[in-house]
């Protein structure tokens, strides 16, 4: 038999043929593990054939658009490996273990985000993966809002802005939610996520509607769409002039949600709530033109579209 020299190219598919059990010549070589095959020892070829990258990365959704949450799932070989590092175009984002030698990081996109090619870098197990993701642009409608006298000049208070900003920065290591989110109110949707607005005829620069509005009747129940911890309770009487009576739920790992303009609050800070539990009632407190619930969902402080979370959720 004539042995091939290392200078000869390896034809596509030849490596797989060499390792098929029907090749008696290869079986003989495996017994010795010393005979050259294509200029390499069989032991080296076996290592090459069985080698698997220690770091596997999957990004969902496959075809994201502005407003979507990018879920970066990382799989490693070792159960005791260090938590991988994830770098988005806007900087580092935390990754958390989700079981089975897997980790997940969430990257928010918004109507103010630059669409196009994104590169996400993942480092771990001594390896680096550079993942290219194309984030599609998305058209958002424009709406005119006319606030009634007494509410048309509301600027908000330092107290409410400081409390809400602090709430949005929460990154609790525990994951409280599980699966797709429930609808927080049964009323019809009147304003979708991402709408740009004119307030009393003046366009609001760098503004977009940070949530979904449900026109439920005054006093209709507001439910927690997913499990979490009540981390914010604010009242109009305490200075929450824009948010009105508001509840904030920490769902864990950088995911938070806000419920604005409530007429009634049924929970207190520190309470643990489950999906479907009533947390308050629809009202028109704060900067509101009529009874409705404003539901906002945030990833690492950025307002993302809640709708995909209702139908698919994030693992």
Automatic annotation (TrEMBL):
Pfam family, one: Peptidase_M23
Alphabetized InterPro entries for the sequence: Cell_wall_metabolism_enzyme (IPR050570), Dup_hybrid_motif (IPR011055), M23ase_b-sheet_dom (IPR016047)
CDD domains, per database record: M23_peptidase
Source organism of the structure: Laspinema olomoucense D3b
Sequence ranges assigned to domain M23ase beta-sheet core in this UniProt record: 208-306
Protein name: M23 family metallopeptidase
Coiled coil: none
């Amino acid at each position: 038999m004539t042995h091939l020299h290392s200078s000869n190219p390896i034809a596509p598919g030849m490596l797989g043929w060499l390792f098929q059990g029907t090749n008696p010549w290869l079986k003989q070589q495996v017994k010795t593990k010393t005979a050259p095959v294509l200029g390499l020892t069989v032991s080296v070829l076996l290592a090459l054939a069985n080698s698997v990258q220690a770091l596997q990365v999957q990004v969902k959704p496959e075809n994201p658009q502005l407003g979507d949450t990018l879920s970066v799932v990382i799989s490693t070989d070792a159960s005791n490996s260090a938590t991988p590092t994830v770098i988005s175009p806007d900087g580092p984002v935390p990754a958390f273990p989700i079981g089975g030698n897997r980790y997940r990081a969430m990257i928010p996109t918004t109507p103010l985000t630059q669409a196009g090619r994104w590169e996400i870098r993942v480092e771990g197990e001594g390896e680096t993966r550079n993942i290219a993701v194309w984030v599609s642009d998305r058209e958002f409608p424009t709406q005119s809002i006319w606030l009634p006298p007494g509410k048309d000049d509301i600027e908000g208070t330092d107290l409410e802005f400081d409390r809400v900003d602090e709430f949005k920065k929460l990154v609790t290591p525990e994951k409280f939610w599980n699966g797709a989110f429930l609808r927080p109110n049964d009323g019809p949707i009147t304003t979708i996520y991402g709408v740009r607005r004119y307030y009393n005829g003046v366009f609001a620069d760098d503004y977009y509607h940070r949530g979904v509005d449900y026109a439920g009747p005054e006093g209709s129940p507001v439910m927690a769409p997913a499990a979490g911890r009540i981390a914010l309770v604010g009242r109009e009487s305490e200075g929450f002039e824009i948010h009105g009576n508001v509840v904030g739920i920490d769902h864990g790992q950088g995911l938070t949600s806000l419920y604005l303009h409530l007429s009634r609050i049924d929970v207190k800070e520190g309470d643990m709530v489950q999906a479907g539990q009533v947390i308050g009632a629809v009202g028109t407190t704060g900067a509101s033109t009529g009874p409705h619930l404003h539901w906002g969902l945030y990833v690492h402080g950025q307002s993302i579209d809640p709708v995909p979370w209702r139908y698919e959720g994030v693992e």
